[in-house]
From TrEMBL:
Protein name in the entry: NAD-dependent epimerase/dehydratase domain-containing protein
Phylogenetic placement of the source organism: Eukaryota, Viridiplantae, Streptophyta, Embryophyta, Tracheophyta
UniProt domain NAD-dependent epimerase/dehydratase: residue ranges: 25-174
UniProt xrefs under InterPro entries: Epimerase_deHydtase (IPR001509), NAD(P)-bd_dom_sf (IPR036291), NAD(P)_dehydrat-like (IPR050425)
Family matches, as SUPFAM superfamilies: NAD(P)-binding Rossmann-fold domains
């Protein structure tokens, strides 16, 4: 982000998505944190009333001290030293950037709210495929006959957009908000898709695994947030991916 980046002076509320590129190296951290602070400083100078930052559950779940089996809430933060030890640089970059955002808010009085989505899927507006969609397609493409049948935390990009609107329009909104649909097993995703796309090649065997994450989204739902049925999200996603040549019918 450029230090000279400035929002429109007549725009009292700004939604900003600080999407960090995923590389297995520590140099993602400085750009994420510095870029976030540059935008926030520009917002402060422009007298923006509220900034809604899109963070990630990556800043939530990498916490070895969280009670095992308990759904994550906004109180959980990915643990910095644990991220460093395991070289989870993407998780660390999202965590530090969000922490710095709240530190800046405390120092300057800028009203900041963060949204922490899980794996975002759904129709794409751009012609290029993003990392989240690549990860999702990796679950369901038949490149491997056998895959792990863990629970996956997905969220429709349109539901994330709704969360952003709620976060900046509701004057009572504050702090962090987890943003995820109910977890779903890979086998259930495949079975849903088979009804509409029966000729596609899917994984054939599923190995049951334990230890998946769940997220408590009650705080966001209290703002009026709802999610689309997963069947609708999957259908609309695949229709889009087919059109982009990412999914063969």
């Amino acid at each position: 982000m450029s230090p000279a980046l400035s929002p429109p002076a007549n725009h009292p509320t700004l939604r900003v998505h600080f999407a960090t590129n995923i590389f297995l190296q520590a140099d993602v951290i400085a750009p994420a944190v510095t870029g976030t602070l540059n935008v926030l400083k520009a917002c402060k100078e422009a007298k923006v009333k509220r900034v809604v930052v899109v963070s990630s559950v990556a800043a939530v779940f990498n916490n070895p001290n969280w009670p095992k089996g308990k759904a994550f809430t906004e109180d959980s933060w990915s643990e910095e030293q644990y991220c460093r030890k395991n070289e989870d640089w993407y998780f660390l970059s999202k965590t530090l950037a969000e922490l710095e955002a709240f530190a800046y808010a405390a120092k300057t009085g800028l009203d900041i709210v963060t949204i922490c989505p899980s794996l975002v899927i759904g129709p794409l507006m751009q012609p290029t495929v993003n990392t989240s969609v690549k990860v999702f397609l990796g679950y369901i493409k038949g490149d491997q006959e056998t895959v792990q049948n863990g629970f996956k935390n997905l969220v429709d990009v349109r539901d994330v957009a709704d969360a952003l609107l709620l976060a900046y329009e509701n004057p009572q909104a504050s702090g962090r908000y987890l943003c995820s649909s109910s977890p779903i097993r890979v086998s259930d995703i495949v079975n849903i898709l088979k009804t509409s796309y029966p000729t596609h090649t899917y994984p054939k065997n599923f190995v049951e695994v334990e230890g998946s994450y769940t997220y408590n989204t009650e705080k966001l739902r209290k703002l009026g947030w709802t999610t689309k049925p997963m069947e609708e999200t999957l259908r609309d996603s695949i229709e889009c991916y087919q059109g982009l040549g990412l999914w063969a019918s």
